[in-house]
Amino acid sequence: MDLISWIVTGALVGGIFNILVPQQISVGFLGAMGAGALGGVVVSFICSIFGVLPELAFSGLGVGTAVVGSVIAQLVVLAYRKAAHV
Questions:
Q1: How far is CA 82 from CA 24, 25, 26, 71, in A?
Q2: How many whole angstroms separate alpha carbon 23 and alpha carbon 2?
Q3: pLDDT tens-digit profile of 53-77?
Q4: Which residue pairs, CB below 8 angstroms and at least 24 apart, start in 43-52?
Q5: CA–CA separation, 27 vs 44, rounded Å?
Q6: Mean of the per-residue pLDDT values for the chain?
Q7: Contact between 12 and 40 (Cβ < 8 Å)
Q8: pTM of this prediction?
Q9: Which of 46, 66, 81, 84 could form a disulfide with 40 if both were Cys (CB 3.0 to 4.6 A apart)?
Q10: Nearest CA to 2 among 62, 67, 68?
């Protein structure tokens, strides 16, 4: 598994996403990186369980699924912050 690449990719996407989001609904830089890393790992792990990703090997598809998972996690956090008016 390329777990480290999933974590790094998710954290980087979370950090970039935090820069693009307005400060009123931002969760902070570390929060965005943590949520991005978590989302990237979860989606990539689910894809590897279903056989979409190769096991024990670095792949561009794995990085792509980490990016998608990170963006999904960021959107979920933003939706929660917007709905809760926090």
A1: 9, 7, 10, 16
A2: 33
A3: 888 788 889 899 999 999 999 999 9
A4: 43/68, 43/69, 43/72, 44/6, 44/69, 45/1, 45/6, 48/1
A5: 23
A6: 90
A7: no
A8: 0.88
A9: 66
A10: 62
Determine the average pLDDT of the residues in 35-60.
90
| 43 contact partners, CB below 8 Å, separation of at least 6 | 65, 66, 68, 69, 72
**CA distances, 38 to each of 34, 70, 84 (Å):** 6, 7, 21
The residue behind tokens 């890393």 is 37
Q: Is the C-alpha dihedral spanning 27, 30, 34, 36 positive or negative?
A: positive
- Count of residues in the chain: 86
Looking at residue 7, its amino acid is I
Query: Measured between alpha carbons, how far is 5 from 64 in angstroms, rounded to an integer?
Result: 10
Amino acid (1-letter code) at residue 24: Q
Alpha helices in 1-86 (DSSP H): 3-20, 29-49, 60-84
